[in-house]
């Protein structure tokens, strides 16, 4: 599904990714862990197409297509979803407005007809119910006044509505209490654990991986993946830290 070969990237002239390679197949969940400043969030932003995060070398393909040549909206239509560590607030635009436009824009690119207001509302309410989010929150401006846990739960609802093929979730566990963490983990499993989907979980800590069991864990340090293993590697990192393992 996703193939990254020798990816290099810079931010404002400073090289952050220094030859990163990773292959993610359909049906797999990959966790990427590493110390602060290693390049974890930069990887997510480069794959999502965020401005000022500039690829300078290497290749990235998504289902055989050159991802780096696509605009961000094209990447989304191709099935990529980027979840943020700190979801942004969008005053004046309700969740329903935002998500209906996003979904119908993607459906147009795929040659599918738009959902009517009633069809979309039925879908949105069903996804909110599955994540334990009150329907009234669908009417509120996107993330405005939401707690940290509510923002992450809302992001899971967004992911459920858009139905991506590849989700890149950047520190989705940041700032969550135990109940919110479990809800987010359950949402990832329900929405993305499927033979035609894949997930890259970017995280500092092992705790989310108690709920979302990864197939592979990678250690990213100094812009490269320096070690890979199974779920047991996350426990090793939790015990020993990054120092010896990432050296």
UniProtKB/TrEMBL annotation:
SMART domains: AAA (SM00382). GO terms for molecular function: ATP binding; ATP hydrolysis activity. It comes from the Bacteria. InterPro entries: AAA+_ATPase, ABC_transporter-like_ATP-bd, FeS-cluster_ATPase_SufC, P-loop_NTPase. Residues 2-247 form the ABC transporter domain. Keywords: ATP-binding, Nucleotide-binding. Pfam families: ABC_tran. PROSITE patterns: ABC_TRANSPORTER_2. Belongs to the ABC transporter superfamily. Ycf16 family. NCBIfam families: sufC (TIGR01978). This is Fe-S cluster assembly ATP-binding protein.
């Amino acid at each position: 599904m996703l193939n990254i070969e020798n990816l290099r990237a810079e931010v404002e002239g400073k090289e952050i990714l220094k030859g990163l390679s990773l292959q993610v197949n359909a049906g797999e969940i990959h966790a990427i862990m590493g110390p602060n400043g290693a390049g974890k969030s930069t990887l997510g932003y480069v794959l999502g197409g965020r401005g000022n995060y500039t690829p300078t070398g290497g290749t990235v393909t998504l289902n055989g297509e050159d991802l780096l040549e696509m605009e961000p909206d094209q990447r989304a239509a191709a099935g990529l979803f980027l979840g943020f560590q700190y979801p942004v607030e969008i005053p004046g635009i309700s969740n329903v407005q935002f998500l209906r436009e996003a979904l119908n824009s993607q459906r147009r690119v795929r040659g599918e007809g738009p959902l009517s207001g009633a069809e979309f509302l039925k879908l949105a309410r069903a996804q909110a119910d599955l994540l334990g989010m009150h329907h009234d929150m669908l009417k509120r401006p996107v993330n405005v006044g939401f707690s940290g846990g509510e923002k992450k739960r809302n992001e899971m609802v967004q992911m459920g509505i858009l139905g991506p093929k590849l989700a890149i979730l950047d520190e989705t566990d940041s700032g969550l209490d135990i109940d919110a963490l479990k809800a987010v983990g359950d949402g990832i499993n329900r929405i993305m654990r499927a033979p035609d989907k894949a997930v890259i979980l970017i995280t500092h800590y092992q705790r989310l991986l108690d709920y979302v069991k990864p197939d592979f864990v990678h250690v990213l340090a100094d812009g490269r993946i320096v070690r890979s293993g199974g779920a047991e590697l996350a426990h090793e990192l939790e015990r020993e830290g990054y120092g010896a393992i990432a050296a």
